[in-house]
Each structure stands twice: as C-alpha cells, then as structure tokens.
Amino acid sequence: MTSFEEAETEETVTCLHLTFYHPCQDEKMMFRCLNFCKREQVRADEMAKFGRDSSVCRYNLMDTRVSRIQFSLQFFRKLHTSEYCFEIKNLSKKTKLTVNQTELGYLNKIDLPWKCIICFGDYQILAEIQEGESVDYFETHLHLAEAPILQERCLPCLPSLQPVPENGISPSFFLPQGKSPTEIDENEL
C-alpha cells in the first residue's frame, strides 16, 4: 500500500461565513480588529463571542455603542441527528438583536438559520453556514460588505418596503391582483 492509500480520510469542516456592514465603517473603522484575510478555526466546545471587550470576545468590534459582549455563537449537533448547527444568543442588556425578523432580548437564543441577516444598532451581518462533518472544530470566514446587506440581498423572509404616496393610501389596495399602477399625464385626466 502507498502512503496515499493509508492516509486518514479528510473530513470537511463546517464554515460560518459572516459578512459585516456598518454605514460608518470607512470613517470609524470598527472592524479593524477582525481578520478578513483567512479562515479561522474555532474549537467545537468554544463559544464564539462578538463585542468590544477584547479580553472576553474573540471577534472585537471597536465601537463604544457595542456592548462588552454583544452576542455569542455556539456550535452544536442536533439531538438524534448528524446535523451540525449554530445557536445565537443575545448577551447585550441594552440592545436587542434581530435574526431575520425574530427579535431577541437579553439572554434569548435561537438556532441560526443556514442563511440569515443578524442586526443590532446600525450593524448588519449576513450569516451563511457551509455544512461540514468535523466534530472537533468549525471555521469562520469573515467578509466586509461595501453596500448595505439588507438592500443588497433579497431574502424571502425580509419584507420589501413599498413607497407610500403623500395621501397615505397605497394604490395597490385598489388594483386587481397582477396589475400595477400606470403613470399618466395630468392633462389626460
């Protein structure tokens, strides 16, 4: 047998892709302590914490409006399955955290959907889970968005905002389904 045949079987690693956006990121540089260059390994039994306290948080946001510990992500395996997931927990007493349209108060937690938008304050984070098999660790891969994520992405769970005319009555209430308003000249009335 060759060394190739005797080598351990490579297992894939679950990777959590996180794309960060803040409207003032160019001026305030609140993401300057995040490593956007490469994937980072996190042990499966560690909690990945995000916040401004560098002694506690693995991922630091350099902003005084961010809580010392804003939120955490915990890697886990669902009971009676081989499926690996993440749980997100709001650790801020002052700021609510929104995952898609679910609002989390202090110490509330939910399973992280495989693709979602996490919001708190002016921060927007697109989270996407790339499945893997490893039980010992997972990886994070951080990205920086140049445009707002809520406007850039079109997720089915996020409502689209329709402009409302000055009179406050939306013309779509009076149109048959599938019909859209048509612009006409004032003189044609």
UniProtKB/TrEMBL annotation:
SUPFAM superfamilies, A to Z: SMAD/FHA domain
InterPro entries: FHA_dom, SMAD_FHA_dom_sf, TIFA
Keywords noted in UniProt: Cytoplasm, Immunity, Innate immunity
The keyword Transmembrane helix is assigned to this record: no
Phylogenetic lineage: Eukaryota, Metazoa, Chordata, Craniata, Vertebrata
Transmembrane parts of this sequence: none
UniProt key word Cytoplasm: yes
Sequence similarity: Belongs to the TIFA family.
Location in the cell: Cytoplasm
CDD domains associated with the record: FHA_TIFA
BP GO annotations: innate immune response; positive regulation of canonical NF-kappaB signal transduction
Pfam families noted in UniProt: FHA
Domain FHA: 49-121
GO cellular component: a single term: cytoplasm
Name of the protein described by the UniProt record: TRAF-interacting protein with FHA domain-containing protein A
Domain of life: Eukaryota
